[in-house]
Design a protein that fits this description.
By secondary structure, the chain is of the alpha/beta class. It has one domain: Vaccinia Virus protein VP39 (Rossmann fold). 27% of the residues lie in helices and 29% in strands. It has a 7-stranded mixed beta sheet with strand order 3-2-1-4-5-7-6. The chain is globular, with a radius of gyration of 15 Å. The N and C termini lie far apart (35 Å).
Amino acid sequence: MVAFMPENWFDSAYQGTPPWDIGHPQPEIVRLDQGGQITGSVLDVGCGTGEHVLYLAERGHEVMGVDSAPTAIKKARAKAKQRGVEATFVLGDALNLSIPNHHFDTVIDIGLFHVFSDEERPRFRESLERVLRPGGTYFMMCFSEKEPGDLGPRRVTQAEIRSVFKDGWRANYIEPSTIETIGGHAQAWLASLTFGR
């Protein structure tokens, strides 16, 4: 399962085209943005090759993408240059986010949370708290336990999401969704979580 792959596994996956790199934003991100739920400055944590960052930048958001895979960041920067889009991509560790003098209004995460171990999840939450302003919202999509089989990342339950984001957070909603992949889709949860009560 992806959650237990070596750290450089993700970078090697970007030497080709991994199944989650679909070449356009996830439909849920488009829906959230067009519905006015994605607001202000935005951080895409685990941005991959940058499709969500580029989409939101074109829509007028101040947006930054961060990923730990150098190859993904290189590809994202090349896409931005090719498309003539002003966007910032940073190589960084999602478990240790630090962006001096900057707090975001919105953080999006499409398919990152589900790769973390139980021990890493609280570290990730604390990392988010360093970059998300009080009252800001974190939108997360992760594989749900309703996805059959065991290929790909670990499955996550609503209860697990709520247990990680309980103290100092408010769950606005956690609803069934799907993550589009190359040639298919996976059952997912879409969570909206606000930092600070």
